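A brief tutorial aside. Many learners find it easier to grasp structure tokens once they have seen a single protein encoded end to end. The record that follows does exactly this for MbtH family NRPS accessory protein. Read the sequence first, then the structure, and try to relate runs of similar tokens to stretches of the chain.
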Amino acid sequence: MPFETSEEFVVVRNNEGQYSIWPAGTPLPPGWVGEPKQGAREDCLEYIEAVWTDMRPRRLRQATGRSAG
């Protein structure tokens, strides 16, 4: 399983502005794009915590008038 054995991860984001990590060197799942952060699991999770400030999906943020995040 790539998540248990991988030491290197890449941060990924979907079209709703939601973030996750994905094992580096494996194909990204459909609908996700790579962010400019790659490294150890902890480093990637810290990056996500810093940039993903609004957990609501993009559609909901736009409907309520806030587009940040």
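Self-check: The beta strands are 9-14, 19-23, 32-39. If you spotted this yourself, you are ready for the next section.
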